[in-house]
Design a protein that fits this description.
rbstp2171, flat, two-stranded antiparallel sheet, alpha+beta, disordered N terminus
Length: 133
Amino acid sequence: MSDTNEATNGEATEKTKNALKGYRKRKKVPIELEEGVVREFLVQEMLGGERQQWQKRQRARYGVDYQGQPAGIADFEGMEADLISCCLLDENGKAVPKGIVQGWPSSLQSALYQICLSINSVSEKDQEKLKVT
């Protein structure tokens, strides 16, 4: 291999490292749903339109006070499962339905929820913005 190719490859690697990504981020997540039985799931980033629909559903959960200002979450039901079902795929590449996710232990849902927030780059500041009507 010549020095010229190595420099070019190094430059390409640097460009790739600093480039914005035009593909979904994905993370394999092994989940033990039954004792001793581990299944491989995939958490994948939502597309822009999917994220907007999820944000719209989250915003609808907030109640308002007599002045029309956000007054906290009025409906917690399925809040974590909603995001998880947008992002979680089973070993066959099929989305895991919200109803299935809601039947899982809260500790599993909380862990998956944090992974989904992270992979979608949803920060606490982003979540606060959802409260503003």
